[in-house]
Recover the amino acids of this structure.
């Protein structure tokens, strides 16, 4: 190898330049960027390696070794600086004032709360629990049989129109077996009565579905259902229990009245009204009350004595047992409680609305 050739391969300045540039880096990120630049495709050493192809074959081996040795030195300089920076960072961390674990955390998401309907649902369920009822649950998709037939709705009864249903396709169902989104929570009555022995006092609550949609009706809304079955209950007990419920929900001044009504699964059937909580005849506010339409009464629930036919459909001795049942809309109670004018607001999930509760 001649002198001039070894000159062109003088790599010490290249190594020195790399070392001093590494020294100048103050962060790991900066250091890694420099390394990529120096040893990368456009770096000096890479250019040297590439030029080896043109060198005379007898020199190629030696030159190659030197370029690779230089590369290894640059890499070692990089590693050394990397360790230095890591040590310095660790030392700075140790010498810094201690991290204060007692600092309150930053609030990244606002804390949520129960939906007004859920809150009212539990308030009502709790009142019945305190009166000795237990809580049960039923599915939202149920058989036509549990939603209508066992409750005494004859096939094609107009009431099945009244509760316009959402039917659900069940793959592989036996012919004639139909399922739907339950139109009321009375399904839980027949489910509980066919699997448990009286005496029974049960409440249940949850979503129900009907093809309805306006200011006071939503296709999904919430009901609470309750029933009591034993050997001696009667309509007086129904009135006593539901009157007590109304006083606990609306306050001790609340009175109730019962109006005859029809549901296929009760006989006699009634609707219960409570005195309007928004107005009073004493101060003249009743005449202009829009909530009760100046009647002084708010309709709150349907109820009645369980029809013996329903007992028979559930395998309960209709001669021995009697019972009462009731069902009410939870959303309506929440709307009255919080002065919400449109039921649809409850289910749009708009935080501007929900954060008001
Ligand atoms: N299931 C009835 C409805 O949805 C309410 C009800 C329940 C009436 C129990 C009487 C007894 O309208």
């Amino acid at each position: 190898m001649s002198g001039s050739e070894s000159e062109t391969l003088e790599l010490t300045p290249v190594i020195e330049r790399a070392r001093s540039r590494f020294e100048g880096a103050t962060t790991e990120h900066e250091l890694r960027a420099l390394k990529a630049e120096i040893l990368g495709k456009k770096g000096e050493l890479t250019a040297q390696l590439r030029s080896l192809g043109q060198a005379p074959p007898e020199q190629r081996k030696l030159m190659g070794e030197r370029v690779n040795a230089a590369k290894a030195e640059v890499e070692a300089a990089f590693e050394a600086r990397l360790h230095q920076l890591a040590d310095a960072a660790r030392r700075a961390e140790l010498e810094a004032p201690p991290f204060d674990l007692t600092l309150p955390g930053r609030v990244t998401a606002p804390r949520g709360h129960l939906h007004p309907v859920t809150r009212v649902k539990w308030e009502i369920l709790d009142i019945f629990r305190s009166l000795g009822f237990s809580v049960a649950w039923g599915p939202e998709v149920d058989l036509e049989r549990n939603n209508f037939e066992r409750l005494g709705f004859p096939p094609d009864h107009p009431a099945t129109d009244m509760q316009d249903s959402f039917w659900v396709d069940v793959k592989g169902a036996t012919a004639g077996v139909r399922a739907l989104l339950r139109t009321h929570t009375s399904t839980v009555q027949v489910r509980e009565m066919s699997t448990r022995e009286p005496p029974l006092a049960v409440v249940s609550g949850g979503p129900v579905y009907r093809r309805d949609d306006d200011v006071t009706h939503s296709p999904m809304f919430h009901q609470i259902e309750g029933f009591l079955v034993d050997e001696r209950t009667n309509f007086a007990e129904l009135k006593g229990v539901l009157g007590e419920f109304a006083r606990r929900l609306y306050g001790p001044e609340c009175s109730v009245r019962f109006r005859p009504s029809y549901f296929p699964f009760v006989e006699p059937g009634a609707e219960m009204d409570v005195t309007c909580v928004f107005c009073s005849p004493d101060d003249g506010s009743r005449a202009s009350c829009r909530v009760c339409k100046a009647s002084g009464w708010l309709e709150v629930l349907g109820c009645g004595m369980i029809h013996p036919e329903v007992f028979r459909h559930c395998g309960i001795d209709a001669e021995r047992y009697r019972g009462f049942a009731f069902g009410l809309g939870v959303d309506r109670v929440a709307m009255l409680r919080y002065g919400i004018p449109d039921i649809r607001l409850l289910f749009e999930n708009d935080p501007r609305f929900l954060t008001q509760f």
Observations:
- The chain has two domains: 3-95, 116-354.
- DSSP finds 13 helices and ten strands in the chain.
